[in-house]
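Comment on this:
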Amino acid sequence: MNKINEHDEKQLNLMFKRLLSFENKQVDLSELVRSLESLLHSMEYVTEEWEEKFLNEFSTLESINAEMPKMKKNEIEKLIKDAVSNLKKLIEEKLR
C-alpha cells in the first residue's frame, strides 16, 4: 500500500473514529454521512481505486439516509452494518 502523508492519516483516523462512534450510537446516520464526506474531501492524496471503493460503500449509507422512511428496519440495519464494516476495513488497509 502507498505510504500516506500525515494529514491524510489524520483524516483516515478521524473517519475510523466516526464510524466507531456511529456503531456505539454516539452519532446518527446523517451526522456520519456528513462527517465522512467532509473528511474524504479534505484528504490531499487519494488513489482513484481507493476512492471508488470508499464511495461505493459511502453511497449505501447516503442512500439509506435519504430513503430511510421507505425501508424496512431489518433491511436498513444489515445494509448499514455491512457498509460500516467495509469502510472500516478500507480505512484500516489504507493506514497500514
Summary: Residues 8 and 46 are 8 Å apart (CA to CA). The chain has a mean pLDDT of 92.
